[in-house]
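Step 1: inspect the first sequence and its C-alpha cells.
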Amino acid sequence: MKYPIRFDDSLPQLVASLNAAYVGDLAAAAPIVIRDFEGRLGVILDVAPAADLDHLNSAIAERLGPYARPEDPVRGRDAPGVSRIIDEAHAAPVLTINGLKIRLLDRRIVGADWMARPVLKPGKIPRIAFVSIKGGVGRSTALSIAATHLAQAGLRVLTVDLDLEAPGLGATLLKPEELPTYGVVDWLVENGISGTDNTFRADCIGKSSLLDGISVVPAFGSQTMAHPADALAKIARASLEDIRDGAPVPLRVQLQEMLESFEATGDYDVVLIDGRAGLHETTAAPVLGLGAKVLLFGINEPQTFQGYALLLAHIRERLPGGEAWEENAWFVQAKADPADEKIAQERFNALWNMDEGSLAQPEKLGPDDLDLVWADSDAPAPLPKEPVPVLRILNDERYRSFNPVENRVQLDERLVRSTFGDLLDWLDEQMDLPK
C-alpha cells in the first residue's frame, strides 16, 4: 500500500525525487524550492544540458502527488517569470535536506512575518519585548513591575500593549479616566485608511498616575470602550498587510513605524513591549522584527519547553541571521519555586542547546544501517556547554491578582525586590543603572 505524502515529508521527498531522476550535478543546479500558500512544491534549477525536464516533472508529480505544483513543478532558470523569483531567493534561507543545499521560498497568507530576517540592530532608544508561549505566566505583571522600577530610577518609560486579543496594560497601569482616546488597534486600522498624524499619536498615549515617567499605549482606547461592539471588527483588520503605492506593508513594518513615531518625540528613554502569548502572527514582530531585547517567559512545565523548542528550531533552521538573534534573547522562569531551580535550569539548558532535528522521531533501522563506523573510544568527550542564563521570578501569591492602581502595596520596594530581583538586576545592567 502506498501511503500519502504529508506536509512534513514533502521537502525530503522532493529532494529524494530530484536525486533519483536528475541527470547531472544536482548541487551545481542550485535548487530554489517554492512552497505555495497551500503547501505545494515547485523547484527552479540551473538545468544541465542532459537534463530532461519532462522526465523530472513526471517523476516529481508521481512521487509527491498533491504536494507537487500542478503544472510543471520543475522549471529552468530561463523560464518566463523566473528571474524575479531568483532575485527574491538571494535573501531566502539555505536548508540542507538529505545532504542537498536548497533555498526555500515559503509563501504564506498568514505567518509571513515569521519568515523575515531578524532585526538585530537596536534603535536609538532601547526596546525590551516581553513574550510567552502561554498566557497566565505573569508576563504583563513583570512588564508593569519593570516599568515602575525604571521610572523610579528616573527613566521615561513608554509601555506598548501588542497583546491585541487579551490586552492588559491599559487596565493595569491606567485609571479609567487616564485611558487615551485610541490605542494600538486603532493605529493599525487607521494608518492604512485615514492616516495617522501628530494629533492622532498624542491621542494614543495615556499618562499613568502610578509614577511620573510611565506612559502607556494600550491595545484599545476609550473610543473602543465606548463602542465595544466594534472591537472585534477592528481586531480582524489590525494584523492585515496594508497596501501602499501598490506594494504590501507587513505588520512588522507597520509596528516599527508606529514605535519610531512615538520615539521621535524625544519623550522616552526606553520602550517596553507586551507581546501576545503563543506563536500567532502578531508575536513575530516583538520577537524578530523590532530590534528588541527579548524576554521569553515560561513556567517549568512541558508546554513551555515544547513551545519554545518549536520557536527556536524555526529561528535557527529557517531564518538567515537566526543564530545571531540568540544574543538578544533571555529566558525568564516565571512562578518559580525554590525547590525546582536545579531541574528547571537543566531543562532550559537542554532546550537552548538542542541540536537540529532533535524533535524528530527516531527513524527505524534498515538493513543498510547495520554497518556502522564506531567512534574511537579514546576520542575526548565533548565539553559541556555553558548553562543558559535564566532569570527567575518567584511564585508569590501576593501577585496572583495584580492591580497596583488599587493596591499600591504590590509596588513596595522590598516586596518587589524579593520576588522580581533577578529581573530588576537584569534591567539595571541593560540600562546601565547604578546598583
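Step 2: inspect the second sequence and its C-alpha cells, then contrast the two.
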Amino acid sequence: MSSAFLYAAVRTPFGRYNGALSDERPDDLSATAVNAVLAQAPSLAPTAIDEVVWGNANGAGEDNRNIGRMAALLAGLPTSVPATTVNRLCGSGLDAAMIGSRAIETGDAAVVLAGGAESMTRAPWVLPKPSRAFPAGDVTAVSTTLGWRLVNPRMPKEWTVPLGECNEQLRERFGISRERQDEFAVRSHRLAHQAWQDGFYDTLVTPVAGLLRDEGIRPDSTTEKLAALKPSFRPDGTITPGNASPLSDGASAVLLGSEAAAAAVGRDPLARIAGRGAAALDPQDFGYAPVEAAGRALARAGITWDQVGAVELNEAFAVQSLACVDAWLKDGLRDPGVVNQRGGALAIGHPLGASGGRVLATLAAVLEERGERYGVAAICIGVGQGLAVVLENPEVSK
C-alpha cells in the first residue's frame, strides 16, 4: 500500500452565528473553499481529481443532502468528478479526509479533495412528517442547528441529554473546576489572536463576504470577565458561553494525494497521513472519546505520545478538552503546551462539518512552524464518538 499525503489546505474565516457569513449558503461556502485549495495547486488538472469527499452534519436545508456534489459543481469542477457527503456529526470533515486517505493508500484514487462545511445560522427548522394526511393536532418546528432532534422514544434518556449537560457530567466525573475551564478558554482566545497577528493564518484562510479573519476571537477576554457569565445548563453548573465553542459558519478543504501525485499537483506535500483512529463510547461521554481515538491512531502510526510535538484538539467545550489532555499526559504526552498552540474552537468557532479540515490543516502548519515530526489532530463527536489522525512532517522525517 502507498502512503497518503496532505498537499494543500484552506478554510474560510469562521463566522459567528447570525454574523458576517449569515447570508452565505453552505454550498457556496464549500465552493469557495474548493476553489481556494485548488488555487494552491495551479498545475493540477481538475480532471485529475478522482473523488470529492465532503463533511456536513446537518444536511436538512441548503446543504441539499449531497453538499459534496453541489460544492464540486458550483466550484466549476468537471461533471465527471464524482463526489460524496459524509455525516459523522462534528467529525464529518476529519472523517472525509480519513476516507480520502484510505482510498489513496489502497490505490483506488491518486488525488482526493476532502473537507466540509456548515452554516449553523442557516440550518432550518423542520416539522415531523405525519403518518396520515391532514393531522388534527399541532406540530412543533424543531431546530436542526445543533444537538438531538425528533428523538426516538426508544432511546435511553441518559443518552439523549443536551450536549452541555453531558459535559457537566464529565466535569463531575473528573473534578474539573470552572476556573480551569475559563483559564483554558482565555488561553484559546489569546493564542488565536496572536496567531493572526503573527500572520500564521494568512495562507490557511481565504476571505469570504468581506470577512478576513475569524469573527469570534475576543483578544480582550479575561478570566474575570468569563467568571461573571451565568451557567448555561445547570443553575450551579460550570459551563457557560465563555468556555464552550460558539455556533459558527464556515468551510474547509484539504487536497490529498499519493506520493506520485506530487508531479501532477505541482508542489511537495505538507504532511503524511501516518495513522488514523476511531473510537466510540456511551453517547453522554462523547467529549472523552478523542482519548481512545488518538491512542488507536498513534498505535497504527507506530509511535507513542512522547514522540508527539503538536496536538490540535477541537475544543467543543473547555471541560472535555481538559479531560482529554489530562488523560494524554498520563499516557505520556510530554507537555500540555503543545495542544492548540495557535488557538482552538473556543475562540475560532466550530462549524460542525468544517472543523475537521481546520484541525488537520492547522496541525500540518504547526508541525512545519515548530520543526516537529509527529502531531495528532483529534475531535469529539456527539452521540459518543471520536476521531484522530496522526500527521508526519516529511521535512523532519528525512
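Step 3: confirm your contrast with the notes below.
The chain has a mean pLDDT of 96. The longest strand covers residues 248-258.
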